[in-house]
Amino acid sequence: MEDLSGKVAVITGGASGIGLATAKALAAEGMRVVLADVEATRLDAAVADLASNGAEVVGVVCDVGDRASVESLADTAFERMGAVHLLFNNAGVALGGPMLEMQHSDWEWTLQVNLWGPIHGVESFVSRMVAQGEPGHVLFTSSFAGLVPNEELGPYCVSKYGVVAIAEVLQRELRGTEVGVSVLCPMRVETAIGE
């Protein structure tokens, strides 16, 4: 994707941190943006901020861990914007502590958001993006913890290793289409993930 002007980006976890910074950068390049986040108050503030700077933006409350919620996000994005050219599976959560002290619910929550969220994104968006026959890109936020094991980040590492695998396999499977794939593996970034 060389020309971003007028194209459509969907960003999960878009109300703060990496997602919001990406939305601002893409809007500055002329992209139309669909921001998705589970936190309605933060989402409203982010949408208002982007709109006040001239961006064409739609906010959608979305729980990426719930497949129906992501399907609804995709339906809204395609209906309101007519297409999706960039999908940024960015929403994520983290818990710290020794694995032996993690509750089953800690594992479930982390994997539901961090791993099932991107899976739901692939299921809900990518076939439609390929069918458009236009240049597009799917981006995933993993982490350095998706490449290197970290003590006291067991569930997080497991989920982020899975995200790297999804991205690498999807990239191979989409060869020959107009849709590219990338995975972001940052070190610690100042975001609201700790909240």
How would a textbook summarize the main sheet? 6 strands, parallel
Please give the order of strands in the largest beta sheet. 3-2-1-4-5-6
Please state the average pLDDT score.
Answer: 95
Cα-to-Cα separation, first versus last residue? 34 Å
Strand fraction: 15-25%
- The overall strand count is 6
- Spatial shape: globular
Strand pairing plus helix content: what structural class? Answer: alpha/beta
Q: In DSSP terms, counting alpha (H) and pi (I) runs of 4 or more, how many helices? A: 6
Helix content: 40-55%
Explain what this protein looks like in three dimensions.
This protein is globular. The relative contact order is 0.15. The chain has helices spanning 17-28, 40-52, 67-81, 104-114, 116-132, 154-173; strands at 8-12, 32-37, 57-61, 86-89, 136-141, 179-184. Strand 2, helix 2 (40-52) and strand 3 form a beta-alpha-beta unit. The chain contains 6 helices and 6 strands, in the order βαβαβαβααβαβ. The termini are far apart. The model has no long low-confidence stretch (mean pLDDT 95). The protein has 195 residues and is an alpha/beta fold. Helices cover 45% and strands 16% of the residues. It has a 6-stranded parallel β-sheet, with helices on both faces.
Fill in the keyword field for this structure.
195 residues; 6 helices; 16% strand
Question: What is the secondary structure topology, with strand pairs?
Answer:
Blueprint: E1 8-12, H1 17-28, E2 32-37, H2 40-52, E3 57-61, H3 67-81, E4 86-89, H4 104-114, H5 116-132, E5 136-141, H6 154-173, E6 179-184
Parallel strand pairs: 1-2, 1-4, 2-3, 4-5, 5-6
Helix pairs in contact: 3-5, 4-6
